[in-house]
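Q: Predict the bound structure with manganese (II) ion.
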Amino acid sequence: MKASIALTPGDGIGPEVVNEARLVLEAIAQRHGHEFKFSEHLLGGCAIDARGTAMPDDTLAAARAADAVLLGAVGGPQWDDPQAKVRPEQGLLAIRKALGLYANVRPVRPYPALARLSPLKAERVAGVDFVVLRELTGGLYFGTPKGRTQTPQGEVAVDTLVYTEGEIRRIVRLAFQMARQRRKLVTSVDKANVLESSRLWRKVAIEVGREFPDVKLEHQLVDSCAMRLITHAPQFDVIVTENMFGDILTDEAAVLAGSLGVLPSASLGEGRLGLYEPIHGSAPDIAGKGIANPTGTILSAALLLRHSLGLEREAREVEQAVNLAIEEGKHTADVGAAHPLTTAQMGEAIRERLDAGEGAPLSRHQD
Ligand code: IPM
Ligand code: MN
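A: Predicted complex:
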């Protein structure tokens, strides 16, 4: 097949990890006779420096015209001034919103070879296999009014948590559809004992649940969910939640996997166009050193193959190759290897194992 993939490497380690993922995609294209066309675009801090805006119009236009977007990371200390009018993160939020990518899929399935990295006891992590569906274009991140004003009492700041029934319904429905392909349990996370928006969320979740009698629905308050992620994580299957709750819970969930560096994500909307990015940040402290872990981005490329290009077999091939590389002890510095591989060596180790992944029956990140 022919596909066009827009790359937004972004800041910090973004360009290094995106480069490895691109090489993996090129290897896949060659192995299966596909034609992938890549183009590179500015997003985040690098766009602020070059254009004065975190999401230039031509980046958005290129993303819209592409079949999928692969993103590295945005941000860094040089753009962190709290007084700044433009921030790299605005680019990320703007592109998610403009492309209508309301569903952020974050699978969490720790690798046994990395279990020692988790601060949790092995028995708390064994068997963990869930996916968090984070609502991505609504809630506290986007609600209005939003802003700061001077008043006689001093400065006042406001953020608004707002959801329409429709916004809740579409993400919860996706959660049920996913659960149907998995262990048939949806955990809807809210703060319904306090927030009105959560009480609507819960009502809609119950309504949608009636369409899926074969899937069990449970409700959990976000604070106790944060605790249960540490105490009973293997119980979860599909977690669905509000934008900021999902942001916080997925960083916590990454602790189960041992390293932020290995977790991918997909942001999906109504059509096939999706945006794929590792869940880690731009790691400015190690940028340019060639030691970042490219695994999260390579697994994000696998999600891209699956969700935007419909290439399930190829996606599994990549996931299986990653699996093999990690289990065979191919590790970068972040996962505490005695003789750590560089970013390029890790990418190479994964590409060398694509053969072994061919026709793989089982995928680790099938979500
Ligand atoms: C994430 C990040 C972003 C978010 C930031 C960088 C805006 O933390 O993708 O989880 O909060 O969504
Ligand atoms: Mn986050």
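A: Residues 89, 92-93, 247 surround 3-isopropylmalic acid (ligand 1) (CB under 6 Å).
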